[in-house]
Amino acid sequence: MIVVIKGIGHNLCSLSFALKRLGVEAIFTDDKELIRNATHVILPGVGAANQAMANLRANDLVDTIKQLKVPVLGICLGMQLLMSSSEEAETDTLDIIPGRVKRFQSDWGVTIPHMGWNQITKLEERDPLMKNIPNESFIYFVHSFAVFETPFSLARTNHGRQFSAVIRKDNFYGVQFHPERSGDVGVQFLKNFLAL
Which is nearest to 42 in space by CA: 166, 148, 144, 190? Predict the structure, then answer.
């Protein structure tokens, strides 16, 4: 059973369509029991960290998520929520992966938000999430905040500074980009996650 947690993102339709194209009928829910009994859990995200965390707390889901032993994938904001904290509204996040989410700076000479196609540099070839993902693949980003320093990176991207495009700690994975909008490479990421 694939569960997508509701209430923390606005990309649910595109994610649902992407999963259906893979033959997967995901359950979109904030029900703790369904989340606990899932085989895979996805934290989607297009929105603000403080509002997303407020919704998770209101639905009493913080401990439920942190205690999951099945594969968990955070997408964009969902990835950022896996970290310890965010500069966005000075938000304490789930604190599953050590590190802080920081804002892109205008004096770096880049557009903010970082929006559009960009390449990833693979740091870890052997992780199953990176299977059949060519180095320097193009993937689709939309974000103003990122994880710039962490030992948990599986791949990085550059936009004024190097930042983490893919992270992992134990059974918790995160992708800063949107696999549901990233063509064949995004499809491969979703396939790899569902095969975990």
Answer: 190
Cα–Cα dist 135/1, whole Å? 31
Tell me the per-residue pLDDT of 55-108, one tens digit each, with 9 for 90 and over: 999 999 999 999 999 999 999 999 999 999 999 999 999 999 999 999 999 999
- Going by C-alpha positions, the residue among 46, 53, 72, 75 that lies closest to residue 144 is 46
pTM surpassing 0.90?
yes
Q: What is the crossing angle of helices 12-21 and 183-194, to 10°?
A: 80
The domain 2-194: what is its CATH number? 3.40.50.880
Residue 13 is among the residues annotated as catalytic for this protein: no
Q: What does the alpha-carbon distance between residue 70 and residue 146 come to, in Å, rounded to a whole number?
A: 25
In the chain, % helix, strand, coil (3-state, to 5) comes to 30, 30, 40
Q: Can you give the residue ranges of every domain in the chain?
A: 2-194
From 10, 40, 76, 90, the catalytic residue: 76
Query: Of residues 40, 143, 159, 178, which has the active-site annotation?
Result: 178
